[in-house]
Amino acid sequence: MSWPAPDQDQEYLEQVLQQTTNAMRHLREAKRLIGEIEGRGEAADGMILATADAGGSMRRIDINPRALRLDTATLSREVTRAIQAAQEASARQAKEIVDGVAGQVGLLPEPLDETFVQHRVEAAARDLYSAGL
Fold it and tell me: What is the pTM of this model?
């Protein structure tokens, strides 16, 4: 890994702080958007409507009374189809949000660790040694 020159540390750390702040802002916005997701699915020619949240939990199922004329096996299959469509729609929306924020968060620099500090201490020791101290 390459680090900034010691005289650029403050500027580098300010950039890291700004990038981290931006990433956190994007993550908060993504969390808000995910909380608002409503995936919708329909079946039986629109007589059965389902709504799911981002986690795939059902929020609402509306069944037009005309759908109740279907035999139980067909009604069951159509309700299941509407639910699955709603869950798939909500998952697709959540993925789009996550993929969008991942591009922003992925731009963060590698975190500084003990090797950075070790590199700085060794550089300072070399500087002191070469100065004859």
Answer: 0.72
- Name every residue whose Cβ is closer than 8 Å to that of residue 105 and which is 6 or more positions away in sequence: 23, 26, 27
Nearest to 86 by CA among 123, 49, 122, 44: 49
Give the pLDDT of the chain (133 residues) as one tens digit per residue. 566 777 787 888 888 888 888 888 999 999 999 999 999 999 999 999 999 999 999 999 999 999 999 999 999 999 999 999 999 999 999 999 999 888 877 777 777 778 877 888 888 888 888 876 5
Task: Tell me phi and psi for residue 111, to 5 degrees.
Answer: -70, 145
- Is the backbone of residue 103 left (phi > 0), alpha (psi -120 to 50) or beta? alpha
Round to whole Å and give the CA distance between 85 and 48. 11
DSSP 8-state secondary structure symbol assigned to residue 49: E
63-94 per-residue burial string, b: 16 or more CB within 10 A, e: under 16: beeebeebeeeebeebbebbbebbbebbbebb
Given a contact cutoff of 8 angstroms between Cβ atoms, the answer to whether 54 and 89 are in contact is no
Give the chain's length: 133
